[in-house]
Amino acid sequence: MGEADIIRRGFAKKTGTEEYIPKIKEGFIKTMTCEYGMEKSKAEHDIEAFLQVIEDASRYLFSRNHSDPYTFIGYATAYLRTYYPYEFISTLLTYNESKLDKTAKIIDYAKTVAKIGIESAKFRYSSADYTFDESTETIYKGVASIKDLSSNVGVELYDLRDRKYKDFLELLPDILETSINKTQLEILIKLGYFSEFGKSKKLLKINEIYGPNGGYKKPKGNSIKKPKIKAKIVMAPRK
Asked: Which residues pair with 139 in a beta bridge?
């Protein structure tokens, strides 16, 4: 038994495999032929499959200082996934943002198992990283994950989420107080980020006139000073 324990500890430390495997084989053959009357060729054949299991396992074995932390991580992640699915999945999506295959699997899990919707970036709901809203059972994509956008823009726009705006024209001065540039603003409009204020075509027209390169001067407060333009703009009524 003492020798068996030494061999066990040798495997646990991923050492001694080449030294101990022959001893195990020799001991098995001796025991099976002498004590159980098995033919030597049969004993040699039977031990080979068992030794292969030992060799395969020894290449994967974790010592205790590795197995204990991994066990705890497994338990902790299972707990968080069960009781805090929105926080867990949002963090997982942000962490694996650049890994398309993993992201696809996470989104599939969210929709099919956790029953959580995944939506594109939206004003009031999206920050720099993935954010969630339990009331709508939805996780929203982060602004920073969009090409040519930045984390700063995502955070700055998210800070405006609790303010009330009757239309996009009223929101525009606050947008232009952030670090967003013309290209970034147009990208967000085209992607439907500001869809609560109307369709992209309408918002692009407003931005063209009152945005960074339009005829309007950046206001000091929240009021828009309309430029003098000859063309009459007919705005569709809000639904």
From this structure: 118, 132
- Say what the pLDDT of residue 11 is: 67
Residue that the structure tokens 């996470």 belong to:
106
User: Encoding tokens for residue 140?
Assistant: 């929203």
Strand segments, DSSP code E, in the chain are 117-119, 131-133, 138-140
CB atoms within 10 A of CB 135: 6
Q: What is the pTM of this model?
A: 0.63
Count the Cβ atoms, other than its own, within 10 Å of residue 166.
Answer: 9
pLDDT in tens, 198-236: 999 999 999 988 887 664 444 555 444 544 433 333 334
Chain position carrying tokens 């991923």:
14
The full set of domain ranges for the chain reads: 2-58, 163-239
In whole angstroms, what is the distance from residue 144 CA to residue 166 CA? 27
